[in-house]
Specification:
This protein is α+β, with helices and mostly antiparallel strands. It has a domain at 34-103. The protein has helices at 2-19, 26-32; strands spanning 38-42, 45-50, 53-56, 61-62, 68-69, 74-76, 82-84, 89-92, 97-99. Residues 37-97 form the DUF6799 domain. It comes from Mucilaginibacter ginkgonis. Pfam families: DUF6799.
Length: 103
């Protein structure tokens, strides 16, 4: 009986410890997944996000892989291909182009 009481106490103690462990909410996890450093087309304007701060893109940028992004939304890939970003398109600092609606 004494062992049963000790076991029950140990289980109760571990349950209270688990109940106090904070779980990350899904909204916080989603906000952590936001793009940190990228350029994107938003409402017809090129925006630059650096360290969580978004501002209008004021000059052309060259990404790590050699891709050039112009302030008018034109992207010139390292291999010479060009494309025009649409609303929701973004270019990561690595040079990869993504669409925010697909992320």
């Amino acid at each position: 009986m004494k062992k049963l009481m000790i076991a029950a106490f140990a289980v109760a103690l571990s349950c209270t410890a688990m109940a106090q462990t904070k779980m990350e909410s899904s909204s916080k996890m989603h906000s952590d997944m936001k793009m940190d450093n990228c350029v994107m087309m938003k409402d017809g304007k090129m925006m630059c996000t650096k360290n969580g701060k978004t501002m209008a893109m004021d000059k052309d940028m060259t990404m790590k892989n050699g891709t050039m992004v112009m302030t008018d939304g034109t992207v010139k890939m390292k291999d010479g291909k060009t494309m025009k970003l649409k609303d929701g398109d973004m270019v990561m600092m690595s040079g990869k182009v993504h669409n925010m609606s697909k992320m």
